[in-house]
């Protein structure tokens, strides 16, 4: 049996991550959305980190999220860690 993989481009993957951030923020999110304006609390950050780890096996950290200025920066970090 062979495994089927779907090749997702970096841009598509960024959009997926932005969608995950939007779910946590319960708001419309663009790459330019400032995290400080999204009212994400510490639990939201932990849930985002867990979701990225669970869905994509990527070790995003709360530190990564907290120190990113925008949702797009978080998406870029995840894409970079994806390899």
From TrEMBL:
InterPro entries hit by this protein: ACP-like_sf, PP-bd_ACP
Superkingdom field: Bacteria
Pfam families assigned: PP-binding (PF00550)
SUPFAM superfamilies according to UniProt: ACP-like
Sections of the chain in a coiled coil: none
Domain Carrier: 4-82
The protein, known as: Acyl carrier protein
């Amino acid at each position: 049996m062979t495994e089927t993989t779907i090749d997702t481009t970096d841009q598509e993957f960024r959009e997926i991550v932005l969608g995950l951030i939007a779910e946590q923020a319960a708001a419309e999110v663009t790459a330019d959305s400032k995290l400080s304006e999204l009212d994400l609390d510490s639990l939201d950050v932990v849930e985002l980190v867990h979701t990225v780890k669970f869905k994509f096996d990527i070790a995003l950290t709360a530190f990564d999220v907290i120190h990113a200025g925008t949702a797009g920066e978080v998406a870029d970090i995840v894409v970079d860690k994806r390899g």
